[in-house]
Amino acid sequence: AALADPSATTVVYMARRTFPELAQRLIAAGLPGTTPALLAESVSHPDQRLTRLTVAELAARIATEASNAPAVILYGALAADRS
Question: How far is CA 35 from the centre of its chain?
Answer without folding.
Answer: 9
